[in-house]
Structures are given as structure tokens and as C-alpha cells.
Amino acid sequence: MSGKDLVIGIDCSTTASKAVVWDRTGKAVATGRRTYGLDHVRSGWVEQNAADWWTATAAALAEAAAQVGGERIAAIAITHQRETFACLDAEGEAIRPGITWMDIRATAEVEAFGTGEVHRITGKPPNPTPAWYKLLWLKKHEPETLRKTAHVVDVAAYLVNKLTGVWATSWACADPLGLVDLQRFDYDDGLLASVGLTRAQVGRLLAPGEVAGGLSAAVAAAVGIPAGVPVVVGAGDGQSAGLGCNVTRPGRAYLNIGTGTVSGVYADRYSHGTAYRTMGGPVPGTYILETFIGGGTQNVVWFVEQLAGLTASDLKGGETPEQHLEKLAAAIPAGSEKLLCLPYWTGAMTPYWDGHARGAFVGLSGLHGKAHMYRAILEAIALEEKLLTDGVEAATGQRLDEIVLLGGGSRSPLWCQIIADVLGRTVKLAREQESTALGAGIHAAAAAGLHGSVREAADAMTGVQKTYLPDAAAHARYATIFEAYRSIYPGLKETFRLMTEKMS
Q1: Bridge partners of 180?
Q2: Contact 325, 415 (CB under 8 A)
Q3: What is the DSSP letter of 319?
Q4: For a Cys-Cys bond, which of 188, 223, 297, 423 suits 181, CB 3.0-4.6 Å?
Q5: Which residues, including other chains, have CB under 8 Å from residue 5's CB and lie 6 or more apart?
């Protein structure tokens, strides 16, 4: 086959860069992938070598293009780990390691500068994740770094410059940094000035799905894709996953059960509140209202590794520990026989924004075993998601009828059914598990003219593979359980604070 009929979606995530080649129907036809590391400098400090983003991306691009022929590539688009940023010198080289979204060193800055006005401008409730607070930390603790800085870049802006020589990003990529006025889709000059930056030091903001520039001749020769191929700015990985699930209209949400659990709903007008954080949407001019649970598959992995105590004799026929525990947990009734779990292994995000909060099992008795605890963890994520979904619906007046599920947790049929039963909503599995990279592919396909618009591309390139319908009796049972569940955190809030202050 000849002609430019394929696009590439780059997903430069926390631990790897993937380049996935998509056709115009949303089928993945080739993939390249390279991993890189994280540096846990000290407790709460998590950094990364910015140069690794480019080294991995270039290798992944070359690997993917070689499988299909670079001459078939019509456009390349980028999605990436959000909030992570790097400070670069005038030559585009990193002055210090990049600071990742996971880094929580700026807690004092959040307490000092996290005002309601900053929340109103940015859509982000005060918390250590946005880069603005970490830039304030650098201003205080590493002023020489900022004096040397010519460019502050999100991951997309860094890659765009490497690919094209242009300093540009999209507002849906830069917005998570906490420097963008989301009502205007432009930088806020006051927020920039507060950290000693000017507009000359941040990338030009484009609409998500807009072409930033053409692939440079030097990069083209290295990766095997023709020079001049359009390089498109997409959206941060959360919004891009939503686009890959076709969350482009009211009434549908995506639920990504990964290490943490992220959910997002579409909105066509700006709002802000503590029940969610507001992000620039992947469809230009729209928004994603996002909730976040600091738990998900990491809770399951922790339980399997630390408490399950499974031996080789427990597992038969190639069964994994998770499959074994799921089989046992499926035989236990809803509510895990009066055992509840609070899934805040790494603190509470929406709607409480409490970094002191931690996980808990409530109601343990001699009746309970490992299968009860395993099921209670699955139920905890579902019950917390109901708390968040109810909050978003109350804040927006918008009912969600359908949840599109993706991420590692979606591979568990029991978990999927529990989510449907707790929420009382139809749950559908995304057809493509690489929905984040697919979102970038959708942006590329629309920019290349393979489809008429971002929404048309999403309609043509996405789909679902399986549907879970809520069981009426189970939903009624979980409604009662939820009344007990939502009282746990308020009852333990002061305990968590005292543990932090008195037991450190």
C-alpha cells in the first residue's frame, strides 16, 4: 500500500515512551517502545533525566516506523506524563533533572500560596502536583537554577523542540503545570511573574490537535520518517486517554484503573470545585473534569506481595496470584461480610485533598481471610469512585449514564462487575487498551485530514469490546454499604492528622 495513510501517536509516560502507528479506523499496526528510570532522590522527591524522554522517543519512533515504512506516516502527535517539567538553558539542555508529577517536595509552598484565587484561575485545587508550586520551591531553594533557565517545558514542549526546533506546546499539555488561565486558554502573567518567569521562557500555546511544525531533516534521517511530516501537539495523558475512549460529549466518563485511578467527564464550559480538578479538554475549547484516587492496581499489587502469602502450590495451571484471589473473592457476597477498606495508600485527592490520609481496613474479625481483604480492596476503589461520581454530578448537574473502563484493573471481570453494581451504571471496556496513545493518534489523524475533525476522528477510531450491566439486587446492597463507607474518612480524619504530627 502506498500513500500517507497512517499516523503515529507518541505516549511519553512516567516510565517509557511508546510510539504506536494507527490506521484511520483506530487499529494499531505497529509499536515501538523504550523504557527509562525514575530517581527517588529522597522521601517525596522524584526526578527524571529529561534527555531520556528524547532518547527513548527517537528510538521508539524509529522502531515503529521501520515496521510499516516511514513514507506512509501522515502526521505525528504527542501525549505525555502531566505536570512533569524541566528547566533548560538557551541551547535546550537540562540545567537540572526534571521534576516529576509524583514529586511532593512543595508541600510548604502549597500551604503558603495555594489560594482560592489560584484555584479559580487554574482549575486545580491546592496540592503538590502542579509544577507551579515546585517552581516556587526552586525560586526559594535553587534560585540559581531559575536564573540560568531559558525555557521551562512540559514533556510535550521538550519533544516538540527536539522534533521540529520549535518552542511550542498545547494548552491541554501545559495546563497541568498550573500556569494557565483556563478560561482564556492562555498563560496567567501573575502566576508566571510569581516564579520569576516571562512568556519568552515558556512554550507558545497552541490548541490541542494543532500542528506545531514539521519534522526536521536531521531527525527525519535518524528515525526513517520523511522531513516535513507534521508534528501535532495533543493533550496530557489523562485527557488523551479520555479522547481515546471517545469522551467528547456529555453523559459519558472514562475510568482508568492503573496504579492510581483517574476518571474524567466532558464539559463544554469552565467550572472549578474541590470535587474535581479541571483540565483543558482534548477537543479545542472544551474541558475535562477529572477525579483522582491515589490507589488502584497498586493496592492489589501491595496486597499480593505483602500479605497474600501465596505459594506455588496455591497456584495451578499457570494461574496468577490475582486470578487465584479473584476466584476466591467472587464467592464472597457483596460487602465482604462486613469488611470495608479505605484505599488511601498514598493520601486522599478528590474531594478531600488530604495528604495525611492513609489506607485502613475497618471491621476485621476472625471470620475474615485473605479473600475477604482482596475483595474489600476491589470494592473500596468502586465505592470511592461512587463518592467521586456523585460529587461531580452534584457539582455539574450532569448525569453520567455510561462509564468506559480501561487500564490494568479492567482486566479483572470481578472488578468490572463490582464497579457496575456499585455505580448502578453501564460499564463498557475500551476496545483499545492503549487509549492514551490512541488519543494522540486521533489528534494526528484529524490534523492530517484523514478525518474532518477531532470528534469525527474519535467516532471513527474508538470502540468498546464488552459491556457490564449493573445487577439490581447487588446495586441495592451496595447503596446500603456506601452509607457506611462514606463515614470512614470523616471519622478518621483527625486520627490521620495526629498520626502525622505525633508519630513521625
Answers
A1: 187
A2: no
A3: -
A4: 188
A5: 23, 24, 72, 74, 450
Closest CA to 53 of 63, 41, 61: 61
Residues 6 or more apart whose CB falls under 8 angstroms from that of 147 comprise none
Place of cell 483543558: 280
Classify domain 6-252+430-465 at the CATH class level. Answer: alpha beta
Beta strands of 201-250 (E only): which ranges?
Answer: 204-206, 210-214, 230-236
- Over residues 145-181, the pLDDT tens digits come to 999 999 999 999 999 999 999 999 999 999 999 999 9
C-alpha cell belonging to residue 260: 492510581
User: 121: exposed, middle or buried (C-beta count within 10 Å: 0-12, 13-18, 19+)?
Assistant: buried
pTM here is 0.91
User: Residue 15 half-sphere exposure, CB side, CA atoms within 13 Å?
Assistant: 1
Q: Which helix (H) or strand (E) holds 53?
A: helix 50-68
> pLDDT of 340-374, one tens digit each?
999 998 889 899 988 889 999 999 999 999 999 99
CATH number of 297-419+468-502, picked from 3.30.420.40, 1.10.760.10, 1.10.10.10, 3.40.50.1100: 3.30.420.40
Identity of residue 135: L
Domain locations in the chain as residue ranges: 6-252+430-465, 297-419+468-502
